[in-house]
Amino acid sequence: LTAVLYPGLPSHPGHEIAARQMTGGFSGMLSLRVAGGEANAMIVAGTVRVFKRAVSLGGVESLIEHRRSTEGPSSPVPIDLLRLSIGLEASEDLIADLDVALEKVSKAGAAGGPVPEGLPTSLAGSDLAAAVVAVMDRSVTPSIIARGGSVRVAAVAGGLVTLEASGSPGAVLPAASHIETLLRAEVPGVTEVRVVWPGLTPTPGSAADLSERVQGILDSEVNPAVAAHGGRVSLVDVAEGRVHIRLEGGCQGCSLAEVTIRQGVERLLRTRLPEIVGVVDTTDHGAGTNPFFAPGKR
Q: Taking phi first (over 0 means left), then psi (-120 to 50 degrees means alpha), and beta for anything else, what does residue 240 get?
Protein backbone atom coordinates (compact mmCIF):
# COMPACT_ATOMS: atom_id res chain seq x y z
CA LEU A 1 0.00 0.00 0.00
CA THR A 2 1.04 3.58 -0.63
CA ALA A 3 -1.60 5.07 1.69
CA VAL A 4 -4.42 4.28 4.10
CA LEU A 5 -6.99 7.09 4.15
CA TYR A 6 -9.00 7.10 7.35
CA PRO A 7 -9.93 10.14 9.46
CA GLY A 8 -9.19 8.21 12.65
CA LEU A 9 -5.47 8.15 11.81
CA PRO A 10 -3.41 11.11 13.11
CA SER A 11 -1.66 11.19 9.72
CA HIS A 12 -4.91 12.05 7.91
CA PRO A 13 -5.11 15.77 6.97
CA GLY A 14 -8.65 15.97 8.34
CA HIS A 15 -7.98 14.10 11.58
CA GLU A 16 -8.26 17.09 13.92
CA ILE A 17 -11.58 18.17 12.41
CA ALA A 18 -12.88 14.60 12.47
CA ALA A 19 -11.90 14.23 16.13
CA ARG A 20 -14.01 17.29 16.98
CA GLN A 21 -17.02 16.34 14.87
CA MET A 22 -17.19 12.53 14.88
CA THR A 23 -18.13 11.74 18.46
CA GLY A 24 -18.16 8.06 19.39
CA GLY A 25 -15.81 6.88 16.63
CA PHE A 26 -14.57 7.56 13.12
CA SER A 27 -17.02 5.31 11.21
CA GLY A 28 -16.29 2.20 9.16
CA MET A 29 -15.39 3.93 5.89
CA LEU A 30 -11.82 4.02 4.63
CA SER A 31 -9.83 3.94 1.42
CA LEU A 32 -6.63 2.17 0.40
CA ARG A 33 -4.21 3.19 -2.32
CA VAL A 34 -2.51 0.13 -3.77
CA ALA A 35 1.12 0.25 -4.92
CA GLY A 36 1.45 -0.66 -8.57
CA GLY A 37 -1.53 1.33 -9.86
CA GLU A 38 -4.91 0.34 -11.25
CA ALA A 39 -3.97 -3.19 -12.26
CA ASN A 40 -2.94 -4.16 -8.73
CA ALA A 41 -5.94 -2.40 -7.20
CA MET A 42 -8.25 -4.44 -9.42
CA ILE A 43 -6.42 -7.66 -8.48
CA VAL A 44 -6.94 -6.92 -4.77
CA ALA A 45 -10.64 -6.17 -5.32
CA GLY A 46 -11.05 -9.37 -7.31
CA THR A 47 -9.18 -11.59 -4.84
CA VAL A 48 -11.04 -10.83 -1.60
CA ARG A 49 -13.73 -13.31 -0.60
CA VAL A 50 -15.22 -11.94 2.63
CA PHE A 51 -15.57 -8.42 1.25
CA LYS A 52 -18.28 -8.07 -1.40
CA ARG A 53 -17.74 -6.01 -4.56
CA ALA A 54 -20.56 -3.47 -4.43
CA VAL A 55 -21.19 0.27 -4.17
CA SER A 56 -24.00 0.30 -1.59
CA LEU A 57 -23.31 1.75 1.84
CA GLY A 58 -24.96 1.24 5.21
CA GLY A 59 -25.59 -2.50 5.01
CA VAL A 60 -24.27 -5.21 7.33
CA GLU A 61 -21.83 -6.70 4.78
CA SER A 62 -18.30 -5.43 4.25
CA LEU A 63 -17.94 -3.94 0.78
CA ILE A 64 -15.06 -3.05 -1.53
CA GLU A 65 -15.11 -1.09 -4.78
CA HIS A 66 -12.75 0.38 -7.34
CA ARG A 67 -14.34 3.81 -7.43
CA ARG A 68 -12.60 5.10 -10.57
CA SER A 69 -14.01 2.37 -12.80
CA THR A 70 -17.46 2.90 -11.28
CA GLU A 71 -17.51 6.64 -11.99
CA GLY A 72 -15.86 6.49 -15.42
CA PRO A 73 -12.98 8.35 -17.12
CA SER A 74 -14.09 11.80 -15.96
CA SER A 75 -13.75 10.79 -12.30
CA PRO A 76 -11.09 12.64 -10.26
CA VAL A 77 -10.61 9.56 -8.04
CA PRO A 78 -7.07 8.09 -8.32
CA ILE A 79 -6.86 4.89 -10.36
CA ASP A 80 -5.14 3.00 -7.53
CA LEU A 81 -7.79 3.70 -4.86
CA LEU A 82 -10.12 1.12 -3.31
CA ARG A 83 -12.99 2.21 -1.06
CA LEU A 84 -14.01 -0.05 1.82
CA SER A 85 -17.14 -0.08 3.96
CA ILE A 86 -16.73 -2.26 7.04
CA GLY A 87 -19.67 -4.42 8.07
CA LEU A 88 -20.40 -6.82 10.92
CA GLU A 89 -18.13 -9.72 10.04
CA ALA A 90 -15.43 -10.77 12.50
CA SER A 91 -12.51 -8.37 12.27
CA GLU A 92 -9.98 -11.20 12.09
CA ASP A 93 -11.77 -12.59 9.01
CA LEU A 94 -11.67 -9.21 7.27
CA ILE A 95 -7.99 -8.72 8.09
CA ALA A 96 -7.10 -12.19 6.84
CA ASP A 97 -9.08 -11.58 3.64
CA LEU A 98 -7.18 -8.37 2.91
CA ASP A 99 -3.86 -9.98 3.84
CA VAL A 100 -4.34 -12.71 1.23
CA ALA A 101 -5.36 -10.21 -1.46
CA LEU A 102 -2.51 -7.80 -0.74
CA GLU A 103 0.03 -10.61 -0.59
CA LYS A 104 -0.92 -11.48 -4.16
CA VAL A 105 0.30 -8.10 -5.42
CA SER A 106 3.09 -7.44 -2.91
CA LYS A 107 5.44 -10.16 -4.17
CA ALA A 108 6.77 -7.79 -6.85
CA GLY A 109 8.28 -5.63 -4.11
CA ALA A 110 11.59 -6.21 -2.38
CA ALA A 111 11.41 -9.04 0.17
CA GLY A 112 7.70 -9.37 -0.46
CA GLY A 113 7.01 -5.74 0.50
CA PRO A 114 4.90 -3.25 -1.40
CA VAL A 115 6.02 -2.00 -4.78
CA PRO A 116 8.00 1.19 -4.13
CA GLU A 117 7.28 4.36 -6.09
CA GLY A 118 10.92 5.42 -6.09
CA LEU A 119 12.79 7.96 -8.20
CA PRO A 120 13.48 7.63 -11.90
CA THR A 121 16.64 5.61 -12.48
CA SER A 122 18.37 8.72 -13.80
CA LEU A 123 18.10 10.32 -10.34
CA ALA A 124 19.55 7.43 -8.37
CA GLY A 125 22.38 8.58 -6.16
CA SER A 126 21.35 12.24 -6.21
CA ASP A 127 21.45 13.71 -2.70
CA LEU A 128 19.36 16.69 -3.80
CA ALA A 129 16.67 14.45 -5.29
CA ALA A 130 16.64 12.27 -2.19
CA ALA A 131 16.15 15.33 0.02
CA VAL A 132 13.30 16.56 -2.16
CA VAL A 133 11.58 13.16 -2.05
CA ALA A 134 11.94 13.02 1.73
CA VAL A 135 10.23 16.39 2.18
CA MET A 136 7.49 15.49 -0.29
CA ASP A 137 6.80 12.16 1.42
CA ARG A 138 6.71 13.73 4.86
CA SER A 139 4.92 17.03 4.32
CA VAL A 140 3.12 17.06 0.96
CA THR A 141 2.09 13.69 -0.45
CA PRO A 142 -0.29 12.59 2.36
CA SER A 143 -2.50 15.67 2.06
CA ILE A 144 -2.53 15.53 -1.75
CA ILE A 145 -3.52 11.85 -1.67
CA ALA A 146 -6.30 12.53 0.82
CA ARG A 147 -7.80 15.10 -1.55
CA GLY A 148 -7.89 12.79 -4.55
CA GLY A 149 -4.61 13.61 -6.26
CA SER A 150 -1.12 12.22 -6.66
CA VAL A 151 2.23 13.90 -7.11
CA ARG A 152 5.71 12.44 -7.50
CA VAL A 153 9.20 13.75 -8.19
CA ALA A 154 9.83 13.25 -11.91
CA ALA A 155 13.12 15.10 -12.29
CA VAL A 156 15.64 17.30 -10.50
CA ALA A 157 17.87 19.31 -12.84
CA GLY A 158 20.06 21.91 -11.20
CA GLY A 159 17.71 23.78 -8.91
CA LEU A 160 14.58 22.92 -10.92
CA VAL A 161 12.29 20.27 -9.44
CA THR A 162 9.70 18.80 -11.81
CA LEU A 163 6.70 17.17 -10.17
CA GLU A 164 4.38 14.88 -12.11
CA ALA A 165 0.77 15.18 -10.96
CA SER A 166 -2.26 13.00 -11.59
CA GLY A 167 -5.76 12.56 -10.23
CA SER A 168 -7.83 15.66 -9.56
CA PRO A 169 -6.03 18.89 -10.61
CA GLY A 170 -8.03 20.67 -7.95
CA ALA A 171 -6.19 18.66 -5.31
CA VAL A 172 -2.74 19.78 -6.48
CA LEU A 173 -3.01 23.21 -8.09
CA PRO A 174 -4.07 25.14 -4.97
CA ALA A 175 -1.06 23.67 -3.15
CA ALA A 176 1.51 24.34 -5.89
CA SER A 177 2.82 27.62 -4.46
CA HIS A 178 2.98 26.12 -0.96
CA ILE A 179 4.95 23.14 -2.26
CA GLU A 180 7.50 25.42 -3.92
CA THR A 181 7.86 27.58 -0.81
CA LEU A 182 8.30 24.49 1.36
CA LEU A 183 10.91 22.84 -0.86
CA ARG A 184 12.92 26.04 -1.28
CA ALA A 185 12.91 26.54 2.49
CA GLU A 186 13.80 22.98 3.49
CA VAL A 187 16.07 21.84 0.64
CA PRO A 188 19.02 24.15 -0.09
CA GLY A 189 19.65 24.22 -3.82
CA VAL A 190 16.00 24.15 -4.94
CA THR A 191 15.22 27.35 -6.85
CA GLU A 192 12.07 26.47 -8.78
CA VAL A 193 9.28 23.89 -8.75
CA ARG A 194 7.28 23.01 -11.85
CA VAL A 195 4.16 20.80 -11.93
CA VAL A 196 3.36 18.86 -15.12
CA TRP A 197 0.25 16.87 -16.01
CA PRO A 198 0.96 13.99 -18.40
CA GLY A 199 -2.01 13.23 -20.60
CA LEU A 200 -3.92 16.34 -19.58
CA THR A 201 -3.08 18.58 -22.52
CA PRO A 202 -5.94 21.03 -23.14
CA THR A 203 -7.42 21.14 -26.62
CA PRO A 204 -6.28 24.29 -28.48
CA GLY A 205 -9.03 26.80 -29.02
CA SER A 206 -10.41 30.16 -28.03
CA ALA A 207 -10.16 30.81 -24.29
CA ALA A 208 -13.04 33.25 -24.55
CA ASP A 209 -15.22 30.66 -26.27
CA LEU A 210 -14.40 28.02 -23.66
CA SER A 211 -15.22 30.46 -20.86
CA GLU A 212 -18.59 31.16 -22.45
CA ARG A 213 -19.39 27.47 -22.64
CA VAL A 214 -18.35 26.92 -19.03
CA GLN A 215 -20.46 29.89 -17.94
CA GLY A 216 -23.42 28.48 -19.86
CA ILE A 217 -23.19 25.16 -18.00
CA LEU A 218 -22.86 26.91 -14.65
CA ASP A 219 -25.88 29.11 -15.39
CA SER A 220 -28.16 26.42 -16.83
CA GLU A 221 -27.27 23.33 -14.75
CA VAL A 222 -25.09 24.03 -11.74
CA ASN A 223 -26.48 27.20 -10.20
CA PRO A 224 -30.15 26.17 -10.39
CA ALA A 225 -29.20 23.09 -8.35
CA VAL A 226 -27.15 24.83 -5.64
CA ALA A 227 -29.67 27.69 -5.42
CA ALA A 228 -31.84 25.38 -3.33
CA HIS A 229 -29.17 25.69 -0.64
CA GLY A 230 -28.79 29.42 -1.10
CA GLY A 231 -25.53 28.96 -2.98
CA ARG A 232 -23.96 30.06 -6.22
CA VAL A 233 -20.90 29.06 -8.25
CA SER A 234 -19.15 31.96 -10.01
CA LEU A 235 -16.61 31.60 -12.80
CA VAL A 236 -13.32 33.37 -12.06
CA ASP A 237 -11.39 32.40 -15.20
CA VAL A 238 -10.33 29.54 -17.46
CA ALA A 239 -6.61 29.05 -18.08
CA GLU A 240 -4.82 26.12 -19.74
CA GLY A 241 -7.92 23.97 -19.51
CA ARG A 242 -8.39 24.60 -15.79
CA VAL A 243 -11.56 26.24 -14.55
CA HIS A 244 -11.16 28.52 -11.53
CA ILE A 245 -14.39 29.01 -9.60
CA ARG A 246 -15.59 30.78 -6.46
CA LEU A 247 -18.38 29.46 -4.24
CA GLU A 248 -20.75 32.01 -2.77
CA GLY A 249 -23.74 32.19 -0.43
CA GLY A 250 -24.63 28.89 1.22
CA CYS A 251 -21.77 27.12 -0.61
CA GLN A 252 -19.06 29.33 0.91
CA GLY A 253 -17.72 27.56 3.97
CA CYS A 254 -20.11 24.62 3.55
CA SER A 255 -18.67 21.38 4.92
CA LEU A 256 -19.76 19.57 1.73
CA ALA A 257 -18.26 22.11 -0.68
CA GLU A 258 -15.48 19.73 -1.75
CA VAL A 259 -18.04 17.03 -2.54
CA THR A 260 -20.08 19.51 -4.60
CA ILE A 261 -17.00 20.46 -6.60
CA ARG A 262 -15.39 17.05 -7.15
CA GLN A 263 -18.49 14.90 -7.61
CA GLY A 264 -20.69 17.55 -9.16
CA VAL A 265 -19.15 20.58 -10.86
CA GLU A 266 -15.83 19.10 -11.98
CA ARG A 267 -17.33 15.84 -13.19
CA LEU A 268 -20.07 17.65 -15.15
CA LEU A 269 -17.67 20.11 -16.82
CA ARG A 270 -15.12 17.44 -17.78
CA THR A 271 -17.88 15.26 -19.23
CA ARG A 272 -19.44 18.04 -21.30
CA LEU A 273 -16.20 19.82 -22.26
CA PRO A 274 -13.34 17.38 -23.00
CA GLU A 275 -10.82 20.24 -23.11
CA ILE A 276 -11.38 20.88 -19.39
CA VAL A 277 -8.72 19.10 -17.30
CA GLY A 278 -9.78 20.18 -13.83
CA VAL A 279 -11.56 22.63 -11.53
CA VAL A 280 -9.76 24.81 -8.99
CA ASP A 281 -11.62 26.25 -6.01
CA THR A 282 -10.46 29.81 -5.18
CA THR A 283 -13.06 30.38 -2.46
CA ASP A 284 -12.12 31.86 0.91
CA HIS A 285 -14.22 29.35 2.85
CA GLY A 286 -13.14 30.74 6.19
CA ALA A 287 -14.96 33.97 5.39
CA GLY A 288 -18.30 32.23 4.79
CA THR A 289 -21.04 33.69 6.98
CA ASN A 290 -24.00 31.44 6.21
CA PRO A 291 -22.91 27.97 5.03
CA PHE A 292 -25.72 25.54 4.32
CA PHE A 293 -23.86 22.77 6.19
CA ALA A 294 -21.75 24.44 8.86
CA PRO A 295 -18.27 22.91 9.41
CA GLY A 296 -19.27 21.88 12.94
CA LYS A 297 -22.63 20.36 11.99
CA ARG A 298 -23.04 16.67 12.83
A: left
CATH architecture of 207-287: 2-Layer Sandwich (3.30)
Q: Where in the chain is the domain with CATH 3.30.300.130?
A: 121-196, 207-287
What CATH number belongs to 121-196? 3.30.300.130
pLDDT in tens, 4-46: 999 999 888 888 888 988 888 898 899 999 988 888 888 898 8
